[in-house]
Amino acid sequence: MIQSLLDGILVGAIYSLGAIGLTMVMHMLRFANFSHAELLSVGAYCALVFDRLFEGLLPVIANNIGPLSLTWALLLAMLVSMGVTGLTAMAIDRLIFRRVRERGVPQSMVFASFGVALVIRNVIGLIFGLSPTFYSNDIAFAMILSQDPLILVKPDQVFVLIAALICMGILHLVLSRTTFGYALRAVAENPSLAQVNGIRLKAIIAAVWLIGGGLAAAAGVLYGLTNQITPLMGNDLLLPVFAATIAGGIGSVYGAVAGGFLVGIAANLAMLVVPSGYSPSFPFLIILVVLMVRPNGLLGEERT
User: Fold this and answer.
1) Is the C-alpha dihedral spanning 91, 101, 25, 262 positive or negative?
2) Range of the domain at 61
């Protein structure tokens, strides 16, 4: 049980990163963006490309960082990928979502997001193929934390958790200690009033896409470190990320973090009592239970 709890915390950190960007977009633009999970795939494959590029240009940074399978090249590639994916998210909004949004038909935004998701997924499959890919072919040996009960953890998993917490911590400081954070919250609560007070709505929306895309890329790379990456990974992570967003409360960044850990832990603990084939249904159950107990989510606030 302790091993499953630990694994749930580690995977929950990835869900939390993916859910943060989604909850920010859903809160500010009032639509369910089903293409958000595909940004995790974009980030993962961007990092793969830049990793190979940096290794070829600077072989000295192709060495592993300590006991990790992560190399300095991949670490640098992850940072670049966060920027590229953030810009990609901004471009998607500018080219597609903004045009649909200006027509004033909210339902069309949801349908457009489905279309964007399909396009991204198939373009990635066309370019990279459908076979699973690994960042490293090295065998990652687990560390024994306890013999009784037996608790194993891989160094990469520890890095994933620490990196995710660092990203969340930086975002917390930005939202709570900067003028931009205050402006973002003002726009999310009342866009018209925020504009009257001199806040540039379009700039804030672009920043939300940039941040959401960057965090999605980080989640995709961290997921790829402990798993394989495929063009379908966005589709596989869509339900857990949405479950984390809804369970935590739409619009609450901290709720998205809590929801991500809740989904990760619950899904892993559930596999102790039910066959693993039923695990995809647990995000649905988590959403149902949370909404029955607290309709606005764990940390969400009622909105008019």
Assistant:
1) negative
2) 16-235
Could you give phi then psi for residue 229, rounded to 5 degrees? -110, 140
Is there a domain that residue 295 lies in?
no
Q: What is the pLDDT of residues 157-204, one digit of tens each?
A: 888 888 888 988 888 888 888 888 888 888 877 777 888 878 888 888
* Within a domain: 299: no
Please write the tens of the pLDDT for every residue from 192-217: 788 887 888 888 889 999 999 999 99
- 120 Cβ neighbours under 8 A, 6+ residues apart: 35, 38, 39, 41, 42, 234
Number of structural domains, the chain? 1
For the cut 70, the answer to whether the pLDDT of residue 303 exceeds it is no
What pLDDT, on the 0 to 100 scale, is given for residue 141?
66
User: Which residues face 146 on adjacent strands?
Assistant: 151
Terminal-to-terminal C-alpha distance of the chain = 42
Asked whether residue 102 is domain-assigned, the answer is: yes
